[in-house]
Amino acid sequence: MDRRIKFRHLEAFVAIARANRLKRAAEQLNLTQPAISKTLRDLENILGVTLMTRDRAGVRLTPEGQVFLQYAEQSTAALRQGISSIASHSEAGGHVVKIGVLPSVAAQVLPAAIEIFRGASPKTVLHVVEGSHGFLTDCLRAGDLDLVVGRLGDAATMRGLSFTALYAERVVAVVAPDHPQRGATRLEQLEGDLIIYPPEASAIRPLMARLMISRGVPLFADRIECVSGALGRAMTLGALRPVWFISRGVVADDLDAGRLVALDLDMGPTEGAVGIMARSEENPSPLVGLFRGALSDAAKSLDSGRAGH
After folding, report:
1. Which of 37-41, 91-95, 137-141, 254-258 is predicted with the least confidence, judged by mean pLDDT?
2. Concatenated DSSP letters for 140-159?
3. Cys-Cys link to 112, which of 218, 265, 292, 298 (CB 3.0-4.6 A)?
4. Which family would the database say this protein is a member of (predicted)?
């Protein structure tokens, strides 16, 4: 881009094109007619083309002017929106950002992201909905959510949505510290146990199915299908003593504190991307963009913490 082109050139050109007369455009911009005429001539000299012709009926765009007008309008509008959004960060009372989260994200990366976001926009209201992958993506497509944070689903669930990866996560099998299967190293050893297993609507169900097929193990017959962190944790530590298959993020704090123990199973095939889902081809609002940045920063901190361990 030619550095000689300034905002005043674009603003004057757009105003003249919209007003169709130099005098009217000059009044709108609080300029004299000679001043706005000179600004237009300067722009045409910089570009090396004639953008407008003048006659008694007003001004008319040349073919080059018609092409340039599209980009000049976009540029001036984008700059004005950027200026307005700066003020919105400090005057965001009443603005709401609606976030959908899967349980694994709610437990780990989301609290850190919210802390970062509120440091930049403390007056914005965050509306957070936790649910299954299918439910949240349906809400996102319907416009009820601004974005969803969780695992990448299969192709059918991602129709009309984009995905930006943040980090990778595996499913783990966890038990109470005194569980008799604590030393299990193969899935086949768990066939006689009560299992808490992800339901069909969950993002990790296909990953678990892939794992079971690769190991030649049939679907566990004695199972409870659930991805609720609260229920899964209470049952795993309760009298029934099930084996719980769940995303590691849901139980990360429990594992670190020793409240639960992860079985030494090869869960490599269950690793999948966790990231941000949004409606395709939609430009996010400045506040939604700010929250996306907060999620990215929180995910980087999470990865650094894992590397440290």
Report:
1. 91-95
2. HHTTS-SEEEEE---GGGGT
3. 298
4. Belongs to the LysR transcriptional regulatory family.
Q: Specify the domain boundaries for CATH 3.40.190.10 within the chain.
A: 96-168+273-308, 171-270
Q: Which residue has the higher pLDDT, 200 or 255?
A: 255
Q: Strand pairing partners for 169? A: 272
The architecture (CATH level 2) of 7-84 comes to Orthogonal Bundle (1.10)
φ, ψ for residue 278, nearest 5 deg: -145, 165
- Is 1's pLDDT higher than 70? no
- Nearest-Å Rg of the Cα atoms of the chain is 28
* Whole-number Å distance between alpha carbons of 250 and 198: 13
Average pLDDT along the chain: 88
In DSSP terms, 195 is beta-bridged to: 223, 243
Do 152 and 272 meet the contact criterion of CB atoms below 8 Å apart?
yes
Asked whether the beta carbons of 98 and 144 are under 8 A apart, the reply is yes
3-state secondary structure of 43: helix
pLDDT tens digit sequence for 118-127: 999 888 999 9
- CATH number, domain 171-270: 3.40.190.10
- What pLDDT is attached to residue 196? 97
